[in-house]
Every structure is written in C-alpha cells, then in structure tokens.
Amino acid sequence: MEVTRRGFMKLAAGAAAATAVGFDVTPAQASIRELKIARTTEVRSICPYCAVGCGMIAHVLGSGARNTMARVTHIEGDADSPINAGTLCPKGASAMQLAVSRDRVANPRYRAPGSDRWEELDWDEAMDRIARRVKESRDRTFVERNARGQVVNRTDGIAALGSATTANEDCYLLVKAVRSLGVIYLDHQARI
Ligand code: SF4
C-alpha cells in the first residue's frame, strides 16, 4: 500500500495521541474530523498570497450539479507539497475567507474622477469600458521607435499590477495579454 506523506502524518498523529494518554482515541478524533470535512471533495491548490507558493487543500462541499453552488468548508496545508510540507502561515491559513467572506466584492466597481463614492457596474458594462479605455490609451501613447530610432513598439500609457489573489494561471494570462499590447510597466503586489 502506498502511503502518502499526508496519510503518514495522519497515522503518526493518531498513534502519538494514543500513546500519550494510554488508550486509543483515534476513533474519537476521526469522528471530529468527519464533522468538518464530511462529504467534501479535496481540491489541491496553491496559496495565492505570496511568492512562497505553499500547497493547500481546499475541502469543497457540493456536487457541482446544475443550479447548485459549491462551497469551500475548510482549507489546510498540503502535507505532500515539498514547499510547505503541510504548514501554512496565518495569512495562508485564513485564505478560505477569499472564497466565503460576506465582505467579498463580487462585482466591478467604478469611482469617477473627483467622485467620493463607488458605483457598482455589471460585468458587461465594465468590460466594455475597460476595452474602450485600453484602446484609447494605447492608440494615444504607443511608441514605435525610441529617440535613437530603434524599434521598441511599447505602450507607455498603461501599467498592469497583479493582485495577491490572482492565481498563477491568471497571472500567466495577464502577462501574455498586456505584453501583446506593448505594456512594459508590469508588476505584482507580492513582489513589492
Ligand atoms: S501560506 Fe503564507 S508563506 Fe505560504 S504562500 Fe501563503 S502567504 Fe506565503
């Protein structure tokens, strides 16, 4: 039988607890554990917060059937990850809030120049505005050649900043998209 690193740690923790108090508490521990992650599916992921890239496991409740919404019920470090070996720092350990917090902003918001309030936009309207403004800014500020006549094809009027909650795959697509526009001012919150 192949024992994963995570499975080995579970077995070792149960055995240590039983040895310490002189009787077998493994069934009791298992039933407590069952309550929290019962009927969930384990989904492996990477903590999005910083460049360490700790592995984590999200326990997701929900069948994924039509008209149902899956829900994250628990997040823990991935013991099989060579990066963090099952540990998470306090920030990573609270990453579940990214998915379930009632304060999470779920729609695009826009604050007009000089305004003191945010207005909520629907996604289509936000995407139209962004596309229009990117096109205008790029047309207005595109530089084909530098002062020495060398071809540079860059867009000086647009910058891109990735957020800590942008997944690796999203970051990859973001970089590809903005580089294709000629954007050279490109950074990520985790590096600042
Ligand atoms: S758990 Fe902490 S150290 Fe690990 S990637 Fe997340 S923020 Fe960074």
Automatic annotation (TrEMBL):
One of its GO terms (molecular function) is electron transfer activity. Signal peptide: none annotated. PROSITE patterns: 4FE4S_MOW_BIS_MGD, TAT. Keywords: 4Fe-4S, Iron, Iron-sulfur, Metal-binding, Oxidoreductase. Pfam families: Molybdop_Fe4S4. It comes from the Bacteria. One of its GO terms (cellular component) is cell envelope. Belongs to the prokaryotic molybdopterin-containing oxidoreductase family. PANTHER family: FORMATE DEHYDROGENASE-O MAJOR SUBUNIT, TUNGSTEN-CONTAINING FORMYLMETHANOFURAN DEHYDROGENASE 2 SUBUNIT B. This is Sulfate ABC transporter substrate-binding protein. It comes from Limnochorda pilosa. The lineage of its organism: Bacteria, Bacillati, Bacillota, Limnochordia, Limnochordales.
